């Protein structure tokens, strides 16, 4: 069985509980808190790379 990179990404995100997130519009504090609580951690990267 083969799946595309896009499908693999969707599977990985769904396995972490991110498939229930709303994709459009503003995100409220409650939704952000639930997104952080799902994996149990928050990583903030301070470096931005533009190519």
Describe the fold and architecture.
This protein is mostly helical and 51 residues long. The chain is 39% helix and 0% strand. The protein is built from 2 helices and no strands. It is extended, with a radius of gyration of 14 Å. The model has no long low-confidence stretch (mean pLDDT 79).
Please tag this protein with its features:
mainly alpha; 2 helices; 0% strand
Stretches with pLDDT under 50, minimum 5 residues: none
Which value, in Å, is the CA radius of gyration? 14 Å
Structural class: mainly alpha
Q: In DSSP terms, counting alpha (H) and pi (I) runs of 4 or more, how many helices?
A: 2
Shape: extended
| Proportion of residues in helical segments | 25-40%
Q: Beta-strand percentage?
A: under 5%
Order of helices and strands: HH
Write the layout of secondary structure elements.
Blueprint: H1 5-15, H2 29-37
Q: What is this entry, summarized?
A:
The chain contains two helices and no strands.
């Amino acid at each position: 069985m083969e799946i595309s990179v896009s499908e693999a990404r969707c599977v990985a995100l769904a396995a972490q509980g991110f498939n229930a997130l709303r994709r459009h519009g503003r995100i409220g504090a409650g939704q952000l808190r639930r997104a952080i609580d799902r994996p149990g951690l928050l990583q903030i990267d301070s470096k931005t790379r533009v190519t």
